[in-house]
Amino acid sequence: MAKHIFVTGGVASSLGKGLTCASIGMLLEQRGLRVRLQKFDPYINVDPGTMSPYQHGEVYVLDDGAETDLDLGHYERFTQAPLTRDCNYTTGKIYLSVIQKEREGRYYEGKTVQVIPHVTDEIKEAIHRLASDDVDVVITEIGGTVGDIEGLPFLEAIRQFALDVGRENCLYIHLTLVVYLKAAGELKTKPTQHSVGALRQIGIQPDVLICRTEHPISAEDKDKIALFCNVERKAVIEERDKQFSIYEVPLSLVHHGLDEILVKRLGLKTRPLDLDDWSAMVERIKNPKQEVRIAVVGKYMKHRDAYKSVYEALDHAGIANRARVLVERVEAEEVGSRGAEAILGGVDGILVPGGFGMRGIEGKIEAIRFARTHEIPYFGICLGMQCAVVEFAREVLGLEDANSTEFDPATDHPVIWLMEEQQSVRQRGGTMRLGSWPCDLAPESLARAAYGTDQIAERHRHRYEFNNAYRRAFEENGLVATGTSPDGTIVEIVELLDHPWFVAVQFHPEFKSKPTRAHPLFREFVAAALRQREASRTVASIELEAEVGAS
Ligand code: GLN
What we know:
The chain is an alpha/beta fold. The protein is built from 19 helices and 23 strands. Strands 13-12-14-15-23-22-21-18-19 form a nine-stranded mixed sheet, with helices on both faces. Helix 1 (17-29) packs parallel to helix 3 and helix 4 packs across helix 5. The chain starts with a strand and ends with a helix. Residues 354-356, 382-383, 386, 406, 461-464 line the site of glutamine.
């Protein structure tokens, strides 16, 4: 029977609960256990797909096409656990199912349908769904902060869960913030006490406290937390902010003995922990041999997490190339207003990520033109591919008003247009072309060289696509389709001939990159940017020598 770990959060949001769950999953896997991870989000949207990235950060897409919370990205980057649409439930998704059953009429046998037991049963079923025979541990993260009204049904459900499967098979971890009061020059444990108090009132006694803190927690403070929160002293775990990278988190949790506590408390038999590969990867992060500057030109730059997986994948590519990737977050509108040279002059590579809507489009197109004409490595993702196609059509094919019909439905040259399957779609939620689709790669292409194989599968999230009526004109002028759907109808990758590295893809490769296994396209993009940096340095030193020689 599977064991269960439930992770709640207290005092403040954004403490890194997702990262902690992912780290725990990784540590248990590295002890040979089979792990599944799941997140509950207490908001009413059925999934984050309909939310603005400003609200929610990135929408993370799974192979099966589920649009999920970005914490699932951490789960995938840290572990091998398979993720499906059963791994992310919102209040909306739970209620939708309950209400559908009620409308069917038979399911609730004429009873009054209520939060307890019907909604809580629905939540518990979602947890059971992951606990199949071939799973040792299910880790369930409860989004939000203890004390939120909207989180109550989830907390009630995980309380009941221990009654159903036995308290000895469940472990509750509470992630909390130990606040530093600058004026007093000391750490304050009271908010943590209150947060655990709120949890205990609901009937959940945490077994482990993970205390996020900017400063070391003294033995005295740990004693106090243990006593007032009724948690074993050694199960009060300190988690300090990391200096280099989020990938250090599991190592520090091990340092504080967390994995040992978990397996003991749950009575799990495991092999010894093997962190060799992970530690080697972290060492590479700490000791890069070179640096490279990549501009990410997008539209939601102010939100730290709007392109979360893209930033992570760039870091992974840095690890693979033994380089520190310095990301410049560029507002596309700025490129439009101040000009590409002023903003992008001196970067070694340019990436335009996915996006929706008109704002910033012209700035993105200008950034791509700059990359194309200055031979700067370019990587376009989804909207970044569509903009590259529009740019090329306007400048090289001379189709001045070429556009995507997303931005100009009346354009004479719809080089990007709505996919046929999308034309009858009226509802917004969950209706894009989503999830993993196969793609055949052309021999001799940069993509084929990067992947080292002829067929790949990548994740998608789009409604618009390359218009095949223009394919010939593009290819005759040097922008070639090097990846298509196996039936040849959907252009998935375009590459520019006569350019050091210009690859643009309709899919989202960032969702499949891992710190220990960088995505091939990100890896090769950063490698090309490093070559570009080297080349521009050589040119600069030759120019300098010439100057010195002349003077
Ligand atoms: N807005 C474009 C489309 O729907 C691109 C989507 C994206 O970048 N994810 O096709």
